[in-house]
Amino acid sequence: MNPQHLKYSQNHEWIRDDGVVFVVGITDYAVEQLGDITYIELPEVGLDVAQDDDVASIESVKAASEVYAPVGGRVAQINQRLLDQPEIVNKSPYEDGWFFKLEDIERAEFDALMSASEYESYLKEQ
Question: Which domains does the chain have, with CATH numbers?
Answer without folding.
Answer: 16-120 (2.40.50.100)
